[in-house]
Amino acid sequence: MPTATLPRWNMDVIIPGLQSPEFEQSFKQVSTGLDELEALFDQIGVDKRIETATESKDVADFEKVVAKYNAVTEDLRTLNAYVSAILTTDTRDEVALARDSEMDQPLTRLRKLGKRLTAWLGSLDVEMLLAQSDVAKAHAYALRKAVVGAQRLMSPAEESLASDMEVTGGSAWGKLHSNVTSQLIVALELDGEAQTLPMSSVRALAYDPDRDRRRSAYEAELMAWKTVEVPLAAAMNSIKGETITLAKRRGWGSPLEAALFGANIDGETLEAMMTAARESFPDFRRYLRAKAKALGLGRLSWYDIFAPVGEDPKEWPYDEATGFVVDQFRTYSDKLGDFARRSFHEDWIDVEPRAGKVDGAYCMGVRRDESRILMNYKPSFGAVSTLAHELGHAYHNLCLSQRTAMQRATPMTLAETASIFCETIIREAALQSGTEQEQLAILEASLQGSCQVVVDITSRFLFEQSVFDLRAKRELSAKELGERMRQAQLDTYGDGLDPEALHPYMWAAKPHYYGRSFYNFPYMFGLLFGLGLYAIYEKEPHGFHERYDDLLSSTGLDDAATLAQRFGIDIRTPDFWRGSLDQIRGDVDRFERLTSV
Ligand SMILES: [Zn+2]
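^ thats the input. predicted complex w/ zinc ion below
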């Protein structure tokens, strides 16, 4: 098996083991740092003030607090990354489990101090502070954001009560959803045999190549959701009701306004992006029709969306993948190519799948300009693409390495910029060199993904908004939730799918509706922003690289629209987003050509 030779990451250069004296030393350093930071907060009185004012003493205090806060955050980041790296490569490791649990304490302490800092900053005269302090200027965006954040808080007593009640309110309803869903057993007939499977396994059958199996799973799934629709509707009504109440009491215009603030974008930007997305639906429907044709169907049903098309014909051994990634990154820049080489040479990537290791893939910053990437490599193009995606995140961390911890706080909307960009470099290269079969497989994977991110996420957005609208007046029945879900799917997928075979229970299946509100649109922003930058690079590569690195290094320094403006991009008008979607339209054209032969 070639997997035996797949590399693991090197964590020993960070700390040589969870039971080493170096680990004890690092843990002690973090604890002492937190003690000192707490003492400093108490001594200065870093808390919400009765009256807004900035005295000359506050400037010096502010600089002291920020320096210490950034330093402690940095130490804690490395320690926490180290523990979670060890744990995620072996979740059965008893020592790692204990260490991971020990991390709760310092993390909670820092979170509490962060809240105190926001409340304090919110009661300082920030503009006066900015005029007097270079440290303040370097953190201007975080400061101004803290001011707005502090204004959108209820009184400390009310906030504290809200936090306590959340445990038995929204979080409890969310837990109910997750418990009911994970324990739901579905009865179905597969290949003429009666079976009972957990809901997650039944939903995974959406990827089965056999249409009868996909349909059986879909029909059984809908019937099973019906049996639990009453508690799930109660959970949805309660969570959305609580969100509306708290948003109103905190002075937000709507739950959406609060979500936009968290994502560092405004309503105009969202509207511009959504307008361009709507315009692209006819193109996604062309893709769905071409896919139906490739599968020998008149029209796709909901249960065909994830059906495989053709076969992925090319094997990608890991060595070939790393060579390909370095070569293609180098067509963009030597800096990017060298960076990928460095990450392979210094063993930043845990490539090998093995028992006890978590599924999927992630990238995390560890210290200074160093990251670590976890993945589970299979010799397919999908894994090459994941490798490029995660290296994009690591490159973003490289660009952020000169920033302080507070300056690095990147919102979800901008966090996928470099990963999508790197993924696109690799996809375009593979499409150019691949056979028609290979191209078809690559395009199908890519379009299936972007159809989810653009079309399905719009349907989820429309649904959530319509639920909030009605919930502001009264509760919704399970039937009404289903009708709204179905309508949102009709408005987005349109005639791309059989209207008689949609999924009126997606509101029950998706956990996102039971947590933070409007969880999804930042993903659409991330994909389209990365693609849009790639489109600009293709059109005008001259002078692009420096501006791109500068943008990546600034993702915590301003709101998305201001950062894009520096690039000459206006994300508040649909044009930029249209350019991103043109990339996808080009892929749909190619996909249609390949499936029409
Ligand atoms: Zn990512």
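Residues 274 and 347 are 41 Å apart (CA to CA).
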